[in-house]
Amino acid sequence: MNAPLDLARLERGSMDELRPALEGAVPAVMATVAADGTPNVAYLSQVHHVDERHVALSFQFFNRTRQNLLAHPRSTVLLVHPIGMTFYRLHLRYLRTETGGAVFERMKAQLAGIASQSGLDDVFVLRGADIHEVLAIERVPVAPRPPGLPAPQARPAALPVLSRASQRLGAARTLDALIEAALDVLQHELDMPQAMVLIADSAAGRLYTVASRGYTPSGVGSEIPFGQGVIGVAARAATPLRINHMTSAALYNQAVLGGYGRDTQAEIAYPGLARPGSQLAVPLASAGRVVGVLFVECGQEMRFNHEDEDLLVALGGQLAAGIDLMHESEEPCGTESDAGAPQAVAPAAAPLRVRRYRRDDSVFVNNAYLIKGVAGAILWKLLTHHREGRHEFTNRELRLDASLGLPDVSDNLEARLLLLHRRLTEQCPALRLQKTGRGCFRFDALAPVELVESD
User: How far apart are CA 169 and CA 447, in angstroms?
Assistant: First the structure.
C-alpha cells in the first residue's frame, strides 16, 4: 500500500480501460494490513464498478481480510485485463458497507447466479457490498506479458441496431411474430446465434421456454424455476446477469434440472450449450413486473460486454411491453380467418393414443411426453371437444374455464397457446392449432385419436 505522496508518481490508468478487468475472468487479489503491520493477501469474489471514483467489493466471510479492513481502511487490489493481460493495481480506501440498495442487490444476484451453477447457493452468500474510494489506478509493468484471450469482434453501432429492432418489433401483430422478430435481431444484427425467450409463470414460480434459436432440439417447453441458474436468478432479482467466464455447463445443467424430485419422463430437456463461455440473462419487465427473460449465450469467454447488456436491456424493454400488449382481447372473433376449411382425418394416418395424467395435466402421445400444466389442460379440452365434432375455439372461453387452472391475474394465455402450438408443430404435427383471428383459433386432428385418462 502506498502513502498518498506515492500516488502522484504512479503510471495512471482510467476506470474506462479497467472495466473489462472487473468481469472476473481472472480472480482479483486484495492486499490488506493488520493493526500490527502484518500483511495479508486473499482472492476476491467480485469487484464491482460503482462510478468513476468508487468500486464495491464483495463481503462474504468474517475472515482476516475483513478484520484488517476494519482496522486499517487502506488496501490495494490487483486486477488483470483478460484480453490485453494488462495488470492494474487499485489503491483503495474503505468507506462503508451497504446491505441494501441497487449496488448490493446487483452484486447479490451476480453471486447467486454464479453459485447456483455450482450448487453452492448456501455457501456463497453476500453479507454486504463494501464501498471503497478509488485513490488511484496504477498500471503495473509485467514482462514478459502472458497471452490473453482473443479480442472480441467489432460490434455494430448500437443505436442503428435498436432503431431497426424497434421497427421490427413494432410491426409485429402476434406474440409469435413479436418473439421471432426479437430473435432475428439477436441472430442477424448482433451475431448472437444462441438465444431463448422464456415466459414467467409467477403462480408456479417457473419460467418456460416459448422460443429459441441455435439449439437442436429447440427446448421449447423446458422449464426453469425462479432463482435457479443465471436465467432463474435474473428473473427473481429482476436485474440483468452477465457471466463471462463460465467453466462448466454440466454443473449448470445439474443445478437447473436437479434437486426437484420430479418425474424426468415428463420434462423437456433444457437446450443450453454444453460448454458455455459467456451468458447474459435480461429480465423482461413491464409495468413493474417480470413477464419473462431474454437469454443469450456463447461458447467464447468474454463475449458479452457492458454495451451488449445495455442493448439487450433496451430491446428487452420493448419486447416485454409487446408481450403485455399481445394479451388477447375478449372481443368476439372477427372475420380475418385465413386458416381455410377444417382439415379432415387422413384415412391411412397412424392413430394417436393420447394419455392425460390428472395429477399434473401432463399429456403423452403414443407414450412420448408432449406437454403438461395449463397448456396440457388446454390441449385435453380441445381434444375432448374435437371428438364431439367441434373445431373453432376462442380465448375468452378458455379464460372463463376454471378447470384449466389459469391464474386470475396475468394468465399469459397467449404465451401458453404459443407454447402449445410450437410443441405440436415439433412433436405431433397431426394435431394442429391455428389462429383464425384476434382472440380465436381452430384445432384439427389429422389422424384418428384415442383419449385415455390416468390419475
Answer: 37
